[in-house]
Amino acid sequence: MPHLIYEYTDNLDPAEADIKGLLKKSNQVLIDQGGVFPIGGIRSRAIRLNDYCVADGTVDDAFVHATLKIGGGRSEEAKKKAGDELFKMISEHFAAIYQKRTLALSMEIVEFSEAGTWKQNNIHARYKKA
C-alpha cells in the first residue's frame, strides 16, 4: 500500500490531461514522503468514466477524483502532508485545463485496518536490497 485510484470523465482528452504523466508524478510524490509509504507497495491507476452526471447534467462539466487508500498506522501529520502535497501536484497538473473549461478536482484519503486485507508482493525485496 498505498493504492491511488483516479477516476476521470471521458470528456477529458487523456493526451491533453497527460494521465500517464499524472500517474508517474503521483508515485513520485508518495515516494518523496520519506519512507512513509514503502516504494514496492505504491500503485496508481486511472479509470476513465463513460457514465456519469455532473451537477444538473446540462453542461459538459468534467471531474477528476483521486482516492488514496492506505493502511493504518501513519500519523495525522504524515497523512496531511502527503494529502496536501498530492493535491497540490494534482491541481498544478490540471491547471491549464482548469483555466479552459469547467472542471472539479477532488481527493480523499481512505485508511483501513490491516485485518481486512490480504497481500502477496515480492516487489518489496527489490527495494530492501538497495
Automatic annotation (TrEMBL):
Keywords: Isomerase. It comes from the Bacteria. GO terms for molecular function: 5-carboxymethyl-2-hydroxymuconate delta-isomerase activity. Gene3D superfamilies: Macrophage Migration Inhibitory Factor. InterPro entries: 5-COMe_2-OHmuconate_Isoase, Tautomerase/MIF_sf. It comes from Dechloromonas denitrificans. The keyword Isomerase applies. SUPFAM superfamilies: Tautomerase/MIF. This is 5-carboxymethyl-2-hydroxymuconate isomerase. PANTHER family: 4-HYDROXYPHENYLACETATE CATABOLISM PROTEIN. Pfam families: CHMI.
